[in-house]
Design a protein that fits this description.
- The protein starts with a strand and ends in a 7-residue tail after the last helix.
- It has an 8-stranded parallel sheet. The chain has a 5-stranded parallel sheet with strand order 17-19-20-21-22. A 3-stranded mixed sheet has the order 13-16-18.
- By secondary structure, it is an alpha/beta fold.
- The chain is globular.
- Helix 14 (362-377) packs across helix 15.
- The chain has 2 domains: 57-339 and 355-400, Alpha-Beta Barrel (TIM Barrel); 407-449 and 491-769, TIM Barrel.
- The protein contains 28 helices and 22 strands.
Amino acid sequence: MQTHNLGYPRIGSNRELKKASEQYWAGSMTAAQLEQTAKKIRDTNWQLQKDAGMDLIPVNDFSFYDQVLDTCLMTGAIPDRYHPLIEKEQSAPLDLLFAMARGYQQNGYDLTAMEMTKWFDTNYHYIVPEFKKDQRFSFFNNKVIDQFNEAKKAGFNSKPVLLGPVSFLLSGKEKEDGFDRVDLLQNLLPVYMEVLEKLDAQGAYYIQIDEPCLALQLNEKTQQAIKTTYTILSTRFPNLRIVLASYFDCFGPNLKTALSLPVHTLHLDLVRCPLQLNDILDTPGFVNCRTHLSLGVVDGRNIWKNDFEQSLLLIQKAMDAIGSNRIWIAPSCSLLHVPCDLDLETDEKTLPEAIKQWMAFAKQKLREVASLKQIATDPGAAHSKKLLEENSRCMEARKTASMIHKQQVKDRVAAITAADAERISSFPVRKEKQQELGLPLFPTTTIGSFPQTKEVRNWRAQWKKQQLSDADYLQRVQEATRKAIQWQEEIALDVLVHGEFERNDMVEYFGEQLAGFAFTKNGWVQSYGSRCVKPPVIYGDVYRPKPMTVEWSAYAQSLTSKPVKGMLTGPVTILQWSFVRNDQPRNITGNQIALAIRDEVTDLEKAGIKIIQIDEPAIREGLPLRKEQQQAYLNWAVTAFRIAASGVQDQTQIHTHMCYSEFNDIIRSIAAMDADVITIETSRSQMELLDAFALFEYPNDIGPGVYDIHSPRVPTKEEMAALLEKALNYIPAERLWVNPDCGLKTRAWEETTQALTAMIQAAKALRKKINTPVPE
């Protein structure tokens, strides 16, 4: 029996990579210094995993930005617009990677960033590969070879990790008509064979190839592509042991294909789908074949301690069927999705020991993997018995903890009726009544947040450390809010926001004010690039003890006669972007949060706020990968949003926001949310995402983003005007809003000012072009 890990957080325990990358982008750190920081993180991660008891340690799981983008560089899948950076500028691979991820606007070039979307049903974003007909691939970047040799030289028993060729193709988009990207496999496979040949020559023995697409509904053509791939690779490289990893769900209809592949080890996510172990062990002939099983029994997506008794039942079942020599123990997926180290949480006020004792971060999860191997292989040993007894006590303490359960919350959820999820009138009636807002055609707005400068972050940090009094902090945030309102009036935005200077994160801020949440000091998780989030922990029943945003929204509205949006995060997004309790169904927790947000919405309306935005960027992210589970999720997710939004009068305009997702398969559910206005990300895709809304004839107002806020590149007025013209092919003029893709928290004020000014000019030009007078 062996232990192994599929991947480890790449940001560093103290977000060293984030800080170094941003210094490099700002010009205050050299490439050599950035590489030195990265090497230190890799060395630390490898040693930590070895010390935790991992028999095999992954390499090439480290990335400066994103593993899919790394694969683009490895295979030479570099869009044509970046070729001048290679040919004329001779940019280093690192700078080319950042240009593809973030855009490039210097030295006379103005190159847009590649599209970004969610990695399956996680909050991790990846860069979307761009494929064209007859796409040619070539081995371009040596990163995987270099990192393998780096680990080998340092003495680690390492396992190179590659994104599988079929999953890589499926993660991308065809940028031309008339071909299927899966047909590019014949052009792509030679590059993978070249990479494996180099790894083989350098002494690699095990190769982990991730094919998470095996958790999706695959057609016969794609399943055949997978069979072809691994038949070719195993034939060409008989000395390499391929560890084929899929995760996030069952193999489902792909099980027969997966079991037919000539691979050494098949990894199973037994957290998301424990029943698939029975299916595999019951498959005729499997017990007597040579294929090893990697049992992903430790949750790589959540922060709760593993229940050893439950995991050992699965391990023992596999041992009884195929013996311990064919079994590996692992986390369910890469530990990229959890924080680094629970040992760094030393503040009892932030994270009480009563809750901390139930948790495990990446470092602790590796120890759990090693402990499970110890108990499974030597159950009679005193150490094994001690490990199991300690774990059992912890599990029982959590089940019976009084701090988790609040009967009044459970009763309120049980009393929810269908009427709680219905607005008073239909959208056409509401739209007519909302004309009293006095908005022009193509109304302009932003998504919510304005730049969180270092100064603003310092105020908040000093206040939390009690180095700044409540009165001083309040005064400073009020002044920042006042300036933001004044500035928005000066640039002539139509619907204003208060800027959210008092907020740390769109989920954490609300979690801090809701009961049932706990927090960490260092529980950072990568969202994309250098962007890290610190998800709250939902440990118990959720309710709202008091209003959360009313005071700030009312203050901002008092400063202007223009409407100021109340800004809230929706129940599904709060759920998705938190580490959620795993002792009750997610929909129950979702309804608890929905009722808390409903209370806030009605209080905002009472305070005179006429437009309220309830952001749900994560609603698509939560969609189960298996089609048979999707409708049940959509039903409760939509209902949760409607419960949150439906307590107001017709005159109150409800907005929602979604970003970096594909909407085609959930468009009916988006419409069923019945928000008066939806704003969505579309600039990176050049409005392609609007196809779904047009084909469906989406009935309500839409604000397609015309400004990509995840890139420092500033678009021109003409560029945004062209996007709006394109949007008019999909959306009637009377239902089209103008806005950025997302909140502006991560941007600098200079680029924000330039971009929003150009955006407003583009909207005004469009009004003028269609001869629509602008109200005074």
